[in-house]
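batch_manifest entry 22 of 60
target: thioredoxin-dependent peroxiredoxin
source organism: Amycolatopsis heterodermiae
requested by: lab member K.T.
priority: normal
notes from requester: please return tokens only, no post-processing; we will run our own comparison against the previous entry in this batch. if the run fails, retry once and flag.
--- input ---
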Amino acid sequence: MTLDHALTGLNDHLRGVLPPEVFEVLEADRRRAAGAEFAEAGDKIEDFELPGADGEPANLGDLVANGPAVLVFYRGQWCPYCNLTLRTYQQELLPELTSLGATLAAISPQRPDGSLPVADLEFPVLSDVGSTVARGLGLSYPVSGPVRDAMATLGTDLEQVNGAWELVHPAVVVVDRERVLRYVDVHPDFVTRTEPAAILEAVKSL
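--- output ---
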């Protein structure tokens, strides 16, 4: 089963269990960013240091010290699509990346004390509080009023979790040792994500 099929199945399940009016608002939000501009392959990413969910900070220089880094930007531990994606990357992607000398890291705007979505992840999970790194790539955006209300209905208060009503578009970027973006795949439709095979192909092409 591909990641896309698994995410579609999850979305179908949520369609059946969430209040219809809430699900409709979230579905509409999937199409909000059509035409938005994001960072592209060939752009350079600024160095950064971010706190990790395990208490250990990580900087980009260390992540690319021995090879390329695959950075996965996700919405937060409250997002079931993100958790499914990160579990899939753990199982299907991490061993292959390790054999290729590449590093995997996940980044969300959540505070460090709540950013770890799965306890047994074996790669860094970092907190980009204030979305500084994500904003530099064009991934950050303010949450609309209707979506705020829908999320509040589901018990998610981003003001408390992130410090602001701001989210990031899910994305995968591959960064080389010179901090140049060699692959960029952004998903304004938060139900869809980058397939592991596409990431491996991008890394192997370097």
